[in-house]
Amino acid sequence: MKDGSISLGSKHWQYASHKWGEYGKPSESKDFIGNISHEYFSSGPTSLMISRLQVTEKDRNAYWYQNIANPSIPKGSNLVLRVKIKTENVEGDGVSIYMHGMFDNDKAENYFLSTEGKQRIDGTSDFNTYELRFDNYLDQHKPTENLQIGLLVSGVTKGVVYFDDVSLCVE
Question: Is the pTM of this model over 0.85?
Fold first, then answer.
């Protein structure tokens, strides 16, 4: 993973906001704003921020992500995604982090793991470390060609979220 400390801003991270099933040329969000924050960070000098003050489009998510091409992860190892997250007045379904392994030019899925529904990330808090584990790593079908790491604010959620110090470890 590149620039997990977010020291290079969004050079290696991409921001997206789209409605369910709307890929390729998504419409512009009326609700979400994704920016690089110089105001709040865990290890400096910046963090990734998603802000949403009102919910008018319940079927839209916003997320920062990074793609890792052809990851070399040994079969049977443990894959651990760690992220520091700061929340301000986050209400609704909350925030989640995910790992998505794909193959066949991103047309087929090997795995999708998320903290959604398993770990509540909401309210107001300073930077806390959250973790997503993939124990006993195994590609379900073919070798993973693209591993996407994502930092997500879901459809009916509002508030401000800051992400920093993202790490992906193979144990």
Answer: yes
